[in-house]
C-alpha cells in the first residue's frame, strides 16, 4: 500500500501520464482528474485524461484551458476509481494501471501501486495534499476543481463523511481562490425545467412501506423520457427518499434494461444499507449502498422492500 | 462600538443576565442564546432566556438541560437582533438592552453597548470567539448550538457569506464534539410527510410566464391547510422558484388575509427585485424584495407578473 509520499515520489519520476476517471463521472473523480492534470502540467509533464462517459455540462469549467498532450501513455493513474469495472468502457485499461488514488473503503485492488485513505470524505482531499507534496501551486483553477470534488462528495458538507479536516481543507481552498458559493449554486441550487418535471413526478410517485420507515422511488425509462431529464440530473433524487421524517431506508429503483434494475439504498442510523444490498450481490457503505436485481419491476420492488423490512425488524 | 474584548470584559463583570433572541427565531439567534447561556452558567452566573415566539421543535435540543434562573434581571443582552422591533412582543425591553451582539450590516443601534461584525456569516461565529475569550470551555453541547447557528445561517456552507474563517470555526466545533451531520440532517434533509405533500403541490402548481423567465408559486391558506405544513416549514419554498434554470424572477405569493397577498420576489442578475416591488409600495435588495398587494389572487398575480414582464423587457 502506497501513501502520500510514495504517490508523490512516483509522480515526480513519471511523464506521459494518462489519468482515468470512473464512468458516470461525478464532481470528485473529475475534480481529482482536472486538478491533478493542471498540477502535473504545471510541473512540466505531459498529461492525458479519459473517462468512459461524457462529462456533464455543469462540470465542464473544471477542464477549461487544460492543455492535454497527444502521446502514447507511459503511466496510467486512476482517481476515485474503487474497482476496475467502474472504468466502464475503459475497463481493458484496468490491468495496466500504475497508481490508483482512492478513498473508498471497498476499494478492490487492480493497480500496481495503491494509495487508498478510506477516512477521507473525497478523493480530492488526497489530491489536495498530493499537489502540495509535489510542490505545485494550488492555483485558483485548481482550488475550484478540488473544492467541487469535496463539496459534491459531502453533499455540501452535510454528510457524516465531512470531518474537521474536510472543513479545514475547504477553508484553505477558499483562501487559494475557490469560488465556493458560485460552485455550490451550480451544483446544488440550479434545476432545469426537466428537473422540475422530474420533481413533480418524484413527489407524486414516491411510495411508503413498513409503517413509513421505508420510502421507495422508481425511476423508469418511461418516466425519464417523459420528463426529459439527462442522466446526470437524476443525482439528487436518491437523497429525496431518505429525507422524509421517520424513514430509515430510502430506495431508488432505476431501470437499466429489460428486467434489470439498479437499486440505490440510503440508510439512516442505525439501519445498514450495505448489509441489505449484499444480499443481492451488491455493496457499499453503511449509509449508502447499491445492488442490481434482474426481474420485472414489481418483483424487484417486492424483493428489496421485503429485505428492508427484515433489516428493520432486526434493529 | 464594543469589540470582542469589551464584550468579554462586560460579561465577566455582570450577573443575573437576561438573553433575548429575535422573533421568529432561527438557528443562529437560538444557537447564540443557548451557547452563551451554557457558558455563562458554567462560569457561575445566573441566566435567563426569552424570545417573543415559540422555539420550533427542531431547535429544542439546543436548550436541553440548561438551568435557567429565576431572578430580576440586572443586565440584558440581545443576540443576532438587528433592530429592537425584531424583539417582537418583547420590544418594550429594547430600550433597556445593555449589550447587543450582532452580525447584520443593517444593525440599527438600540443597546448601550454594541458589538457588531458584519463580515461574520453568523452571530454564532462571534459567540464562539466570545466564549473562548471568557475562558469557558466549548463543551459538546455548546459546540452543537454554535455549529447549528453557523450551518443554518450559511445554508449549510452554500451561501457567499461562508468564508474560510467560517469553515475553520466549524472544523474547531466538530473537534469539540459538534454532531455536524446529525444537525445538518435535521436542519436541511428532514421533511415531514406534510412537507412532502407541500412539495408535491409546489412542483405541480408552479407556473411559468414570459418565456419561462418568470416563475410563480401561490401559497394559499387552502393549500397550506390541505398539506398540513407548519408556518416554519414554508421557509424553503421561496428558494425553489428561483432555482429554475433561466428564471430571472422567482415569485412566491402568500395569502395573508382576504384579498391580501404578500409577494416574495427573488431576482437573478441582472434583474432587480427591489425595483419591481417598489411599484407596489414594497422594497428590499436587488436580489430579494417584497411587497403586499390588496386584491383577489388572480388580479394580484396578473399585476405582479405584468410588472415583472415590464422589467424583463427593459433589461
Features:
homodimer; 315 residues; alpha/beta; inorganic pyrophosphatase (n-terminal core); Diaminopimelate Epimerase, Chain A, domain 1; 2 domains; 6-stranded mixed β-sheet; 5-stranded parallel β-sheet; 11 helices; 11 strands; 38% helix
Can you describe this structure?
The structure is a homodimer of 315-residue chains. Chain A is an alpha/beta fold and 315 residues long. Chain A has two domains: 4-188, inorganic pyrophosphatase (n-terminal core) (Alpha-Beta Complex), CATH 3.90.1640.10; 194-313, Diaminopimelate Epimerase, Chain A, domain 1. Chain A contains eleven helices and eleven strands. Chain A has helices spanning 4-13, 27-42, 123-134, 140-153, 164-175, 180-188, 193-205, 221-227, 237-240, 273-278, 297-313, and strands spanning 17-20, 47-50, 75-79, 99-102, 113-116, 207-209, 214-219, 249-257, 260-267, 283-284, 288-293. In chain A, strand 8 and strand 9 (260-267) form a beta hairpin. In chain A, helix 3 runs antiparallel to helix 4 and helix 4 (140-153) crosses helix 6 (180-188). The A-B interface holds A 156-160, 162-168, 170-172, 174-175, 180-181, 184-185, 188-193, 196, 199-200, 203-204, 206, 212, 239, 242-245, 268 and B 156-160, 162-165, 167-168, 170-172, 174-175, 180-181, 184-185, 188-193, 196, 199-200, 203-204, 206, 208, 212, 239, 243-246.
Amino acid at each position: 500500500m502506497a501513501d502520500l509520499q510514495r504517490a508523490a515520489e512516483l509522480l515526480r519520476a513519471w511523464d506521459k501520464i494518462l489519468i482515468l476517471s470512473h464512468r458516470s463521472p461525478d464532481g470528485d473523480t473529475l475534480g481529482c482528474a482536472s486538478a491533478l492534470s493542471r498540477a502535473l502540467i504545471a510541473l512540466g509533464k505531459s498529461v492525458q485524461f479519459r473517462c468512459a462517459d461524457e462529462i456533464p455540462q455543469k462540470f465542464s469549467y473544471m477542464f477549461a484551458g487544460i492543455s492535454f498532450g497527444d502521446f502514447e501513455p507511459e503511466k496510467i493513474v486512476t482517481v476515485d476509481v474503487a474497482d476496475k469495472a467502474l472504468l466502464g468502457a475503459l475497463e481493458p485499461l484496468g490491468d495496466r494501471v500504475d497508481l490508483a488514488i482512492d478513498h473508498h473503503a471497498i476499494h478492490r485492488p487492480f493497480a500496481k501501486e495503491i494509495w487508498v485513505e478510506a477516512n477521507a470524505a473525497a478523493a480530492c482531499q488526497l489530491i489536495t495534499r498530493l499537489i502540495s507534496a509535489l510542490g505545485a501551486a494550488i492555483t485558483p483553477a485548481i482550488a475550484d476543481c478540488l473544492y467541487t470534488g469535496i463539496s459534491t462528495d459531502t453533499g455540501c458538507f452535510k454528510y457524516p463523511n465531512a470531518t474537521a479536516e474536510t472543513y479545514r481543507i475547504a477553508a484553505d481552498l477558499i483562501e487559494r481562490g475557490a469560488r465556493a458559493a458560485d460552485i455550490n449554486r451550480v451544483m446544488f441550487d440550479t434545476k432545469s425545467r426537466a428537473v422540475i418535471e422530474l420533481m413533480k413526478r418524484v413527489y407524486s410517485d414516491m411510495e411508503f412501506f413498513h409503517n413509513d420507515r421505508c420510502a421507495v422511488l422508481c425511476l423508469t425509462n418511461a418516466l425519464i423520457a417523459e420528463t426529459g431529464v439527462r442522466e446526470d440530473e437524476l443525482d439528487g433524487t436518491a437523497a429525496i427518499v431518505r429525507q422524509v421524517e421517520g424513514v430509515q431506508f430510502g430506495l431508488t429503483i432505476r431501470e437499466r434494461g429489460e428486467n434489470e434494475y439498479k437499486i440505490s439504498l440510503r440508510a439512516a442510523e442505525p439501519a445498514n444499507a450495505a448489509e441489505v444490498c449484499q444480499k443481492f450481490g451488491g455493496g457499499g457503505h453503511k449509509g449508502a449502498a447499491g445492488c442490481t436485481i434482474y426481474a420485472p419491476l414489481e418483483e424487484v420492488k417486492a424483493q428489496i422492500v421485503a429485505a428492508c423490512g427484515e433489516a428493520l425488524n432486526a434493529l
